[in-house]
Amino acid sequence: MIVAAALSEYFYMMIPITATFVNMCRIFVHKPLSKMWKQSPPLAVLFTSTCMMLMIDAVMVAVWLMLLLQILPNVPENYNVVFAPAVFRVALQLIYAITNAALFAQRVYIILIPGGLLRTANKVIVTVEILASFTAASIGVIPNVLLIPAHTVPLPEGCFSANCSNVLPGRTFSATTTLVLSICTVFLGAALQYVYYRYQKTSATPVKEAEKLHLFARYTFNIRLLLETVPYFVDLLLTNVQGGMDGNAAHVFVGPYDFCDLAEQLANSRYYKAVLGVRLVATSLGALMCAFLLRSKVSWIFVHGYDIVGDHKMNTIILHVHARILLKYHIIVSLLLAVNYFAITVFEIVRTMRDVHYCDHLMPRWLSFWPHFVTGNLVYCQTFSSFFIIVERLLCTFRIRTYELLDLRKPLLLFLAIMTGSIIFISYFMLVRTASWEMSLFYLAFEDPGNMEYGTAYMFAHISVDFFSMIICKVVHVLNRRAKKVFLQKTVFLKKQLGSQLSSKLQIRQNIALSSTLMPVVFFHFVISAGSALVISLFALTNWKNDLVTTILVAESFAVFPLYSIIMPAVFHCSHRTLTLGWTESFFVTRGSKVGSVTDGKSKEFERFFKMFDEMMENARSRS
């Protein structure tokens, strides 16, 4: 960086600092801090932390200007002069993020519970805010204090900013804490926007002062998201793409090219070609079966037997909208995983069967990175979506009396979007730093022993999530079987008298039918996904340095993720064969015959209900 550019940047930083400080003084003149505290304690704490941030920023800019102008010598004796403002700035930045989150939490509470105990809520929010600020500041400050290097100059040669300096040796801890707090703040701010939208549509005209604070909090979130959170995440991504905070730019985002010697060895292996052929058939069949299942009436679960009250035979139930959304998300992810793996397989087959030399036409690293990156993320989304389907049924079990009336499809869709984005971001953040981009199977090549963390996290996530999914699924099945007996015996379930409520009966039948179907699905997912990830990761971590080709062949043999795309639809169709019949009818029956069959079905249902009504009337007469 040119010294003149660094000097101009620091001089320009004083302009917004001064303007903000003058504006804050005007705010305090208009409304003193004591009055602001009575109205909204989190807002008063936010403004106080803002003023402290401004002062420490001004001190830091002054110190760095003196360093660049050589007024303050760049010697080890002046290390503490540069270190003290920097570490205080880290602590205040963490406190500032927590004060923003506290303000959003207070606004959400006031909107959701307008007549609640606001004074008690403010005390709780401020107490949690103080404890969280102390904890976050300790995590961000103490490692930097303990890791102070001895006899080190503040600025290395050619460095003119804090990012490349030796000032904060434990910046990894502070960066991780800032990342976590930023995610929490964004979550609370998004919750504020959502509840304000619902509040504006359904509630009466609010108090003028409360409305001003609501708008201020919303605008604060929008400005913070645009000018602070998004640039922070972009800077974090670019920093890690270029080699991370250690400065080891070993792998750049684009280029050079693939590892042609490895491709040549794999192309000469007949076993590898056989594996590709089997995988091509498995992925195409899995994609086709997932598409069939998605096309069929997957929201209808077909059960056999009598109703839980023993009245008459019931053959179908309709799943709740939450279960339908999660189930379709899981099927779509499985379909995309099969299609993506099919594309990777076709590409590998074409590359290994060409007559040209492998080093003449090579693939850029960014192009070889993305298909496998998508595969890893889809496997994670598949695992967590199956887990949340079971969790949703568990919540339905504990709220069985009122769950039928609950409709949270928009928050659920938002949650799935946030979950998918979080998986992509975390995977990108970890893989870009750990993966060797010179290989097709980048997630198998570990650059140094420290990259074992990703492989361990990958295995642990699969095994633990699938294991807990099986346990929760069994718990849901047992609880609802017990509830079914309770209905038959007219006793008490979960210490609440359910009586003969229709909603409770429907939810019990849904839970039993879906848990019975999902138990083998979750088991096969555990065996296929977690088992294959365990074998591949262990073999890659222990043997890849000795024999890379054998490691890749073993990994390709145990990469049986597409088999789940075949087994999951097969389990659904075997458990509920009417799904297959309904899909076949929707494709092969003409429109006129469809209308006729629907009309005949409606007339038969009409006659059946009239017959049931006549039987009920006869039973009533006989009793009287």
UniProtKB/TrEMBL annotation:
Subcellular location field: Membrane
UniProt cross-references to InterPro entries, sorted A to Z: 7TM_GPCR_serpentine_rcpt_Srab, Nematode_rcpt-like_srab
Membrane-spanning ranges: 12-29, 41-67, 87-112, 124-148, 175-196, 329-350, 370-391, 412-431, 457-479, 518-542, 548-567
Residue ranges that the Swiss-Prot or TrEMBL entry lists as coiled coil: none
KW Transmembrane helix (keyword) present: yes
Membrane-protein topology: Multi-pass membrane protein
Chief localization: membrane
Pfam families assigned to the protein according to its UniProt record, in alphabetical order: 7TM_GPCR_Srab (PF10292)
Entry GO terms, CC: membrane
UniProtKB keywords: Membrane, Transmembrane, Transmembrane helix
Protein's name according to its UniProt entry: G protein-coupled receptor
Lineage, highest ranks first: Eukaryota, Metazoa, Ecdysozoa, Nematoda, Chromadorea
